[in-house]
Amino acid sequence: MLSRNRMLIRSLLSSSFPCTRNFSGTTPPPRKFLETGDTLRQTRIFTNEDVTEYSKASLDSNPLHFDSEFARNAGFEDRLVHGMLVAALFPRIIASHFPGAVYVSQSLHYKSPVYVGDAVVGEVQVTNIRKNKSRYIVKFLTKCFKNDKLLVIDGEAVAILPTLAEEKVNVVD
């Protein structure tokens, strides 16, 4: 009896069965693969706390970021958000869609100031994809807009992606 059970188990294990991952009967949505021309976006409103925390981490305590009167005397409407903090939207956008991405380079051109409380849309657009072994080297045009239209930063970035299959990951603010 024991030997017959073993034979049955071996037979079942060596058999080929179709693999089904969705037991609910639904099929997963098709995965989106990154292509030249694709654009990814995220919106962020920068707060006083963001500016303070960035200043602590970067050791950038320029009074333009903390003193409204100083900023106005320098010709601005109010206190500025650090330009590099705004530009940090770019690697965040890429990593939130492609976990494990390695940010390689970034050029930046600051066009207009960003103030605390401004809603900023960061945008990365794929301009080139090159396969290198099992990874992908992707070049992006990078732009940030405030008030949905005013260009505040533009530039280019390069990142190494482990895959071209997008995987939306929740990012923590």
Using brief descriptors, characterize the structure shown:
5-stranded antiparallel beta sheet, single chain, UPF0336/Enoyl-CoA_hydratase, MaoC-like_dom, Thiol Ester Dehydrase, Chain A, HotDog_dom_sf, (3R)-hydroxyacyl-[acyl-carrier-protein] dehydratase activity, alpha+beta, 173 residues, MaoC-like domain-containing protein
Quote the CATH topology.
Answer: Thiol Ester Dehydrase, Chain A
Computed CA radius of gyration, to the nearest angstrom:
24 Å
Query: How many domains is the backbone divided into?
Result: 1
Please identify, by name, the CATH architecture.
Roll
Distance between the termini: 62 Å
Specify the biggest β-sheet. Answer: 5 strands, antiparallel
| Helix count from the secondary structure assignment | 5
Task: Give unreliable regions as ranges.
Answer: 8-25
> What sort of overall outline do the alpha carbons produce when their principal axes are compared?
elongated
Which structural category fits the helices and strands? Answer: alpha+beta
Percent of residues in helices: 25-40%
Major sheet: order of its strands? Answer: 1-3-4-5-2
State mean pLDDT (0 to 100 scale).
85
CATH homologous superfamily designation: Hotdog Thioesterase
Element-by-element helix/strand order: HEHHHHEEEE
Give the percentage of residues in beta strands.
Answer: 25-35%
Pfam families: MaoC_dehydratas
Organism: Salix dunnii
Protein name: MaoC-like domain-containing protein
GO molecular function: (3R)-hydroxyacyl-[acyl-carrier-protein] dehydratase activity
